[in-house]
Hints:
This protein is mainly alpha-helical. Helix content is about 85%, strand content about 0%. The chain has nine helices and no strands. α3 runs antiparallel to α4, α6 packs antiparallel against α7 (about 120-130) and α6 (about 95-120) runs parallel beside α8. It is globular.
Amino acid sequence: NRRPQGQALMAQDAALALMQAHGLWLVGPMAVIEGPIVTVIAAYLAKLGYMQIFAVYAVCVLGDLIGDAMYYWIGRLGPALLPETWLTRLGMTQARKLSLEGHFASKGGRTILLGKWTHSAGLPIMLASGAARMNFSAYMAYNLLGTLPKTALFTLVGWFIGSAYAAVDTWIWRISLGLVVGLAVVLLAIWQRRRP
């Protein structure tokens, strides 16, 4: 159990050293891949004087949105690359696809915001929005709406307690997992009430 935690700490230490050496040129691409902890570390480096805090915020927002767009297009174009038998095995029947499209047409905005703010549910929701062919402009608008406060929160966390970035990363994971579990319990309760 300690070994993976140690490896994660080494990776975070390496990210800190790389961002310190290369600045925003590296923060941007790293924010595309893993926005929250990169934002925390970059904001901590801004507090230490290595970067400008508003530039960190802007680059992290942009990186997060680029990542969101990539996941959307993977979800949208990916199923077309898979054979029909694989899609069926994965549960993507025509009926499910129509149901998914209907959900994102009527509740896509709420679903995107939920994915952004729970973090753990974000990737599957973004892939699903692409598979459902949600309007891309609306998808990006809701992502921007969710990204601005989320990135601001992680920027503040980095500024004020960024020196504890390893603990912050653990808490990001724990809180997002807790939110997903809590959401699952609420949805299950709602589903149970609506059953005849």
